[in-house]
Amino acid sequence: MNQTQFSSYNQMIADTIKANWNLNSLSDYGVLTLQYKDVARIIEKMHILFEESGVVPGDKIAICGKNQCRWGAAFLSVLSYGAVAVPILHEFHPEQIHDIVNHSDAKLLFVGDAVWKNLDPEKMPALEGVISLTDHSLHISRNEKLTHARENLNRMFGEKYPLNFRAEHIKYYEDKADELAIINYTSGTTSNSKGVMIPYRALWSNADFAESVLGNDLRPGMNVLSMLPMAHMYGMAYEFLFEFLKGMHVNFLTKTASPTILIKALADVKPVLIVVVPLIIEKIVRKSVLPKIQDPKIRMMMRLPVVGQRIKQKICDALTNALGGQFYEVIIGGAALNQEVEALLHEIGFRYTVGYGTTECAPILAYNDWKDVVPGSCGKAAKNMTLKINSVDPECIPGEVLAQGPNVMLGYYKNEEATRNTLVDGWYHTGDLGVLDAAGNLFIKGRCKNMLLGANGQNIYPEEIEDKLSGMALVSECVVVQRNEKLFALVYPDPEQIKQLRLSHDDVQAIMEQNRKDLNPSLPSYAQLCGIHIMPEEFEKTPKKSIKRYLYMDYKF
């Protein structure tokens, strides 16, 4: 990165607050709204609290709770003070939260009420204080200065700004490009969490990228609906931070995103950008779109030039309206999108795109605008980034995806071995397998750790088999595993369909066996399934809804 390009990220936060002082900023959907000036007041009060209690730039401050506007305000308070934010996914088990707080050396913890009731402060002995995200009261304080500061916070704020707090009073910590901004603990699809050290340059570069591809279509005052956990970099970067910097209004969906709640929120908020994981889009398409086009007559008519285009447009309009109707595009990321679903979205002309990123790049690595989508691809290298494939033939033979650029992390916190294995000769090793076509479009084939070897040394990518299988009868979720060089699928069948069709266990087993017979001819001989095992319950997932594959590699059946 050209160091002269970088500008202070905290100055960008200050500038957007000043420019959009009276606009709506952060809302808990249907409950509470903060304007930019309200966020500024919270930030200023938290800065007083930090300073009076002895927090200095570089100290770690953790945040753990469900999405809400005070989560966002707390995060901005930490960053703009020069402290290091440690966002923790509220879905983590309490023991994981204890471990992350301890491992990160957090001095303070902002916490939501639902999370706090399950935590044990005695298991976090180094914490000096725990602050409620609801009202900034102290759950515990082990620091007299912190206690005194909180008890006298309003008086201190009034004394500092006797004639009212105004935009011109804002002055935030001046960050440097390689300075540590965030320690973000990965959600652990393949192993235990690691603390990713994200510098300010990565935050700036992700914002610079987003401005370059979406800046002309998004403007101050526009709405966005935040559904993904903000403690995950995908949701944080593109449902919160970029929109905040643009002066937009971020509405946090504070309840679990059931279809009913989600559809109503989308209709009310009418977001101009939708950022989702594949699971949400796939569920909507399978429930709302696929049933409408199962009729052979409809499929036949869709192939006709004029009539077919009208039918596709109607389907596209219905899906667009179900998602609020006002969005520029739907960005899908966090996991692979099912090929059958993507083919349908592409066929009807739906405004979607599939991006690719990792926590270690805060998160973006590849993207295409919806108008330039290549089905099956997750776009080209994002602005400021360089991608290459570690393969003798990068266009045809999958190899590990390597990345270079300002988005790349500093390393893993207190884990030098993992850092050495991941940052090699100036390149970040993603652990993902892929190919790059002649135009630079990236196609992900799977995870290096997930790749299986056939009897004669052939490379088998289980994700490709799972993608085909997941589109077959009754299959809700699936994972392909290897037993003594033979492949088997673990399948969790769709409970609603089973109930609706009144199927017995034997019926389901027979349908799965037929699925296997129908699937195998489309696979190479070394990648064919020897059997399908029915799982009694859903697979355990990370908060971004990726299956924790490593839990099932040795599953007994």
Write the layout of secondary structure elements.
Blueprint (H helix, E strand, L loop, with lengths): L8 H11 L4 E5 L3 E4 H17 L7 E5 L4 H13 L2 E5 L5 H10 L2 E6 L1 H4 L12 E4 L5 E4 L2 H8 L1 H8 L19 E6 L9 E5 H15 L8 E4 L6 H13 L3 E4 L6 H11 L4 E3 L1 H12 L6 H7 L2 H18 L7 E3 L6 H9 L4 E3 L1 E2 L6 E4 L12 E2 L4 E5 L8 E6 L6 E2 L3 H7 E2 L2 E10 L5 E6 L4 E2 L5 E2 L1 H8 L5 E9 L2 E8 L1 H7 L3 H15 L9 E6 L23
Parallel strand pairs: 1-11, 3-4, 3-5, 5-6, 10-11, 12-13, 13-14, 27-28
Antiparallel strand pairs: 1-2, 6-7, 8-9, 9-20, 15-16, 16-17, 18-19, 19-22, 21-22, 22-23, 24-25, 26-27
Helix pairs in contact: 2-3, 2-6, 2-7, 8-9, 12-13
Describe the overall structure.
- This protein has 18 helices and 28 strands.
- The strands form 8 sheets. The chain has a 5-stranded mixed β-sheet with strand order 4-3-5-6-7, sandwiched between helices. Strands 18, 19, 21, 22 and 23 form a 5-stranded antiparallel β-sheet that branches.
- A hairpin with a 2-residue loop joins strand 26 and strand 27 (486-493).
- The mean pLDDT is 93.
